[in-house]
Amino acid sequence: MPESAREGRPSPEAGALSGALVVELGSRIGAGVCGSLLSQLGATVVAVEPAGAAAGKWRRRACFMAGKLSLAADLDAPSDRDLLRDLIARCDALIVSSDVDGPGERVVPAGIEAGAVVCDVTAYGATGPLAGQAASEWHIQAVSGIVETTGMLEGAPVPVPLPIVEFMTGVHAAAATVAALRVARAGGGGQRIDMALYDCAFSAMATFLPRPLAGSSEPIRRAGNRHAMIAPWNVYRARDGWILICVGSDAQWQRLCDIMGRAELAAAPHLGRTPGRLARAAEVDGLVQAWVGGRTIGACVDALNRAQIACGPIVRIDGYPREPNLEHRGMIRRLHDPVSGIDAVLPGSPLRMSRSDGRAPERIPAPGVDREAVRRLATERPPPPGRRRPGAATPALAGIRIVEIGHYTTVPLSARLLASLGAEVIKVEPPEGEATRDWPPTQHGQGYFFTYTNSDKRSLVLDLRREADAAALRDLIATADVLMENLRPGALARRGFSPEALAALNPALIYCSISGFGAHSLYAGRPAYDSVVQAMSGIMDVVRSQGVPVKTGISSADLLGAQMGVLAVLAALAWRDRTGQGQSIDLSMQDIAAWLTQMAWDAPAQAAEPLSLLACSDGYVLVEAGSEKADALAHEAPGGQPCAAAGLTRREAARRLTRLGAPAAPVLTVHEMLAEPHTAARRLWFPVTAGSGTWPLLASPLRLLGTPPAVRTPMPELGRDNPAILGALRRA
User: Fold this and answer.
1) Residue 106 confidence (pLDDT)
2) Which of 390, 509, 543, 660 has the least C-beta neighbours within 10 A?
């Protein structure tokens, strides 16, 4: 790690979860992600390695064993079962994946009996018609709408060849576990957590849900790399690779025309304004491609950055993402892998915190090498406090006040999930309202997306250009536990709210900033959208449609940034509970998105999961097999009679292929996913009447069963809570 990235960072021993013991039994990637993040936060994580394990997280053992203790165990051997039971009886948290790991059922009851937090990461969760059914990452991508919404409009849908849902579920699982541990420390005892990949995938589809939930039957179409409301916004081929360019306004279009030496285009009646460019998106893309095609990526980036136009090269994963800012921030690490005998390239921790910094892994253990250390933990460590005391369990964040200065997706989503855990969230908006407040479709002038993304919050309008309103914000922050924002780095500091000023104002404050490239970055002030971060983290190098880099349909960087924000705030609260100290959090969406791609690092010899799509009479099926095998199997029929896949429905083809040994799933549309019985049974969305309207709200995927998250109220009208909040501040 460069010295610039090390300066001022605390020692790795200062972890938010120092002293906690976690036992990781689950073989799902999501279980491994959960354990890895808890380890980075300072917990001692013992990963149990069954003999001959090769599926799930074990396909990339180095990724998911780094930073953990290894216990090689045979659950059929009485001595190993006894050791594991003793260990679980003394652990604070247990991570399992019961849908794919049957043997774990023998030892999980010991954790429940001892009062541990038991986090179960499964495909479909513990309730609903599909409860307990094992399903792969790719199956969940297909049935949740993620595949259908990724790819070019004119082409076939594209699966994301990264375990993105498993990773998102793992981050959510880690956050839920830290929340449950907070409940336990307060006297509420242990509890079960029901973490479902399906729930997390549904939650990730939020940007596609407003029109269907407003009653529209119009199909949701793939957009490729284009933007639904702005143009030009696409990838273009330079002399030495691909570059993404995002022109966010008419003023930026004028600056781009000047750069291209085509100033007349900005004045053209049919291209000068956004609606005209949207209607002629292909023509506009051709004009931009003509300029980009004669230049290198570096020349394009330099010119566009000078003009403050968001852009980014499609970063290649050549062993790891070759991007200077990732090196600068310490996200590229090399550790010796005792299994392969060579050094592995692994990501550092994306949890950058001023006092309880994420602990980057320091070693990859050999299988079973830590047995003696684990035996000591199982015999010498005192057990956790035990079962819940009557009346002691309150929501994890009851009594916590969060001030949110957020826009679009990332921080608003973080704060919404924290609100569902019991926090009071005050959303500070400018006089004109947050940018997404009127995104269509709307009801009474307020957008559906804005309303459910900001559920269970209070609305406070402040104009920070006015000293009186800036003073009100200072007074509010003095009463807060957490401040979250995703403005450009330095924007709050320029108004007098630097991290140092905030710490002086409220030493116990947790200040969480989420930005494209981080506050301590090589790219200070550089604009970043979700698409730019996907480009500059390696995601778009992995996801391609006919060789062209393509972003995921879901806003992967925004979503993971939000989810990591929830985890970081909960961890910082755990640190403050123990020490009384506040701290600042600097989350970079580029760090987090690159961390997501780690299973594509350093792995040319380990073939990616073979995936293929077959066209059917009513759409596509996603097959976990190469295209030749999938096509051959689809033509087989009982009695040896040929039957082309194109003559079958998706569900018929999926059943046939799965029966013949190639797991397959129908690629469902957004409307079909919403109509699935499992969606209704899990109550992943539900209507709530407030004032003169009925709004759809989205459930929280953080399913703590002892202290369940509560989603109750839509976001109110702009400034509704000004009198109550400002009046209370004046009285104080």
Assistant:
1) 62
2) 390
User: Is a pLDDT exceeding 90 seen at residue 353?
Assistant: yes
Residue type, 313: P
What band does 650 get if pLDDT is binned at 50, 70 and 90?
very high
Cis amide prior to 677 (ω within 30 degrees): no
Say how many C-beta atoms besides its own lie within 10 A of residue 726's C-beta.
Answer: 17
CATH topology of domain 1-216+364-608+669-732: Rossmann fold (3.40.50)
Percent of the chain exceeding pLDDT 90 equals 85
Query: Residue 6: pLDDT band by 50, 70, 90 thresholds?
Result: very low
Count, residues in the chain = 732
For residue range 506-519, list pLDDT tens digits in order: 999 999 999 999 99
Q: Report the pLDDT averaged over residues 217-246.
A: 95
pLDDT at 531 over 70: yes
Angle between helices 137-144 and 197-204 (to 10 degrees): 40
Give the CA-trace dihedral at 40, 551, 517, 522, to 10 degrees.
120
pLDDT bin (cut points 50, 70, 90) of residue 635 is low
Task: Identify the CA nearest to 604 among candidates 382, 345, 331, 281.
Answer: 345
Q: Identity (one letter) of the amino acid at 277?
A: R
**Tokens 């807060």, located at residue:** 480
Q: 396 is written with which tokens? A: 């994890």
Q: Is the dihedral of CA 306, 312, 315, 321 positive or negative?
A: positive
Statement: residue 5 has pLDDT above 50: no
d(CA 242, CA 419): 40
Q: Which two tokens stand for residue 13?
A: 């021993």
Please report the sign of the dihedral spanned by the C-alpha atoms of residue 221, residue 222, residue 223, residue 228: positive
Domain coordinates of the chain in residue numbers? 1-216+364-608+669-732, 249-308, 609-668
- Both tokens of 440, joined, read 């269509």
Helices (H) and strands (E) in the chain, counts: 29, 26
- Gap between the Cα atoms of 414 and 2, Å rounded: 30
Q: How many CB atoms lie within 10 A of CB 664?
A: 30
pLDDT per position as a tens digit, 267-323: 999 999 999 999 999 999 999 999 999 999 999 999 999 999 999 999 999 999 999
CB 23 within 8 A of CB 70: no
Closest among 694, 198, 82, 176 to 417, alpha carbons compared: 176
Cβ neighbors of 46 (< 8 A, separation 6 or more) are 21, 22, 23, 24, 68, 69, 70, 71, 87, 91, 370, 374, 377
Is 135 in contact with 213 (CB distance < 8 Å)?
A: no
Q: CA-to-CA distance for 433 and 703, rounded, in angstroms?
A: 31
What is the C-alpha separation between 673 and 594, in angstroms, rounded? 29
